Amino acid sequence: MITKIGRQLDETAEAVRATGRKCLVVPTDVTRSEQVNAMAEAAIAEFGRIDILHNNVGVTHMGGPVELDEDKFQAALDLNIGPVYRTAKAVLPYMLKAGGGAIVNVSSLAALRSNRLISYEATKAALLGLSRSAAGELDAAALEHAMRSYANVVREHRFRLVALKPGAGDA
To answer: Which residue in 53, 3, 54 sits closest to 29, CA to CA?
Structure first.
């Protein structure tokens, strides 16, 4: 689990452990590649594999192109898209080695409609494109990996990449 809110992270970890499941807490700044890579390595060291990556990040700034400060627009790009790329880049080699995995990227219905949240809407639409492109790359990567290992079928590599588009509400 990755979050910037330490208390909530600890509460969630305890709730997971109360069910008898293992939980690894790795405080990570997802805007920094070296921390994301260290998080993935810690998960591999603890569990031996990574099966699921769930990306649910986002920041919203009010305003259209005239009102919105350029620094806030860039901050939305850096936080709403960058971590999804960094975490996928960090875990996909492990998923490929394991033969598959699942990535769930949380976009938004805001990607498809306008509510004067240009930075949020643009980055969530970009997330849909990133997800679509990554899904195609996963198919190609699985095929390449299968060819390198002389496998006869790509079905040995099972990948799912979905982008959800929830509406307004608490995330």
So the answer is: 3
Task: Give the C-alpha separation, 66 to 81, whole Å.
Answer: 22
Of 98, 12, 2, nearest to 50 by C-alpha is: 98
Q: Which of 11, 2, 97 is nearest to 55 (CA)?
A: 2
pLDDT at 140: 64
| Tens-place pLDDT, residues 39-73 | 999 999 999 999 999 988 888 888 888 999 999 99
pLDDT < 50 regions, the chain: 1, 146-147, 149-156
Closest CA to 55 of 167, 170, 162: 162
Q: Tokens representing 56?
A: 């649910």
Tokens representing residue 145 in the block: 């990996």
DSSP-assigned letter for residue 106: E
Which residues are part of the catalytic machinery?
Answer: 120
Answer yes or no: are the C-beta atoms of 25 and 10 closer than 8 Å: yes
> What is the DSSP code string of 124-168?
HHHHHHHHHHHHHHHHHHHHHHHHHTT-S-GGGSEEEEEEE---S
Rounded to the nearest 5 degrees, what angle is found at the Cα of 113, between the Cα atoms of 108 and 114? 110
